[in-house]
Amino acid sequence: MDTLGSPQAVVRCSLCQACMATINCKYCHLNMCKDCADKHMIKHKGESANQNRSSLMYPKCQTHVNVHCMLHCGHCGIYICGQCISSKKHQNHDVIGILENIKKVKKRAMQRDLVELEQSLFPIYREIASDIKAKKYDLHRNSRELTTFIDKQGEGLHREIDEIIAIWKEKLVETDSNYQACLGKQEAEITRTISEITQNVADLKKILDSNDVPLLLRYTSKNAEFKELPPKITVTLPKFTPREINSERIIELFGSLSALSFTTVAVEHSYNNLTQEIKTSFPENLDIEIPNAVTVINTGYENIYSVSCWNDRELWTCGDDKIMKLFNLRGELVKSIPTNSGNKPSDIAVTRSGDLVYTDFKDRTVNIVKNEQIQLIRLRDWRPRGVCSTSSGDLLVITISDDDEQTKVVRYSGSTVLQNIQFDNKGQPLYSSGRYIKYITENRNSDICVADNGVRALVVVNQAGKFRFAYTGLPSTTKVFYPRCITTDSQGRILTADKHLRIHILDQDGQLLRLIEYLDLHDPRCLCVDSKDNLYVTECRTGEVKRIQNYM
Question: Which of 207, 231, 496, 530 has the highest count of CB atoms within 10 angstroms of its CB?
């Protein structure tokens, strides 16, 4: 960053357009005020302070002669220079540095490849491998059945035909062995391809975690190779047709064994549904937006546990002390309220009328803050954990028994218990026992959604408490699913963050819509969504709340 020293003209900040610019970014050549500069430099974290920019060939500006473009305007889709910014033609446009734009475009392409590999190509090859295993099993099962038929037919024959029976069995074993070898060869090829895809996925993730621009530029997609699917083998299994025993024509009448035949079919005809999925779900012009944090609020907590939207401009937060804090989107502290008992709150929520609600695990209370006054709901033999407010104005509270052996969800209207949700229709517990992390929310269809770290699942029941489904993460990954939090948006989508720094987005029936990875998140703990579907994520150990753009 260089200080602007000219006193002759007032230069406005290129980002906020409100304050006087005092600093020029040597990476982007943007004029900024100090507040915007502090936030802007986070984008350049990791770039060398002594980077030799003159060694790079930048395009010339189409508007200003002999001036090189260091910036890219996302709104106009063109490269621009610092003079273009000063002209205010690109005011309020999405302007970033050229290098950052290159990384963004390249990463978007890589992200698309990764999604296609993980969600389409890998499952297709896995399906092919499974199909081969099924054919091998059918071949083996058919051979066993034929062996049984041959044995039964031989029981009625005299000792002199034992040699003939042995000949038939030898033919069957030989046929089985030959075609088992054929299937085994194709299975080995499929296994090798799956291994290559797995390695390619690992390499992509490694590159995505890197800020090495040359490495990004050298990346070449291999997906086209994997789209050339192997032909499908169609097996016509041999059949044995027994005949009536006749001692004079024993060899002729013993039976016949049809030959097992193999045919290969073009993959478009044999895996129609799967290949069509590649064409429709991943067109070449698919544009996958990369989510990124556009607002960062430092709450001052060493560990932040929960966040809840009071409105579209302010957020309630709670952390590792007794003070609950209300912040606006500029990161300014608007209000703070201590807990009634002096204990740190377990969870917070905001009611439809705008009242703050918090649970106090040690004090066994659910607390509703109305006009600076606190109304208590005191529990007996149970302790409250997660809490949320419903569309009807009720409260849903996760409670744990004093002996930590039971967990249930209780619906309150005021201090009156309306409903207890604890068991499924078979009498089995819906939720884990013990003091595992558990958060709760209500979806727009009135489903009750609980993120239960103890059972490694999102457990969803309907409004009546009947079990609907449990989401346990991606079946194709080796990472164990540890849900840390849960929220829903205006479209009924369910969002949760796990300990592997990923955000899972589901539809209201539990089908995965999107998995967001590679966000610059550190130990995400809680999520909330405002009425405009802006997503806010808390980072437990940094004490920050981040607003995420392009999460869908």
Answer: 496
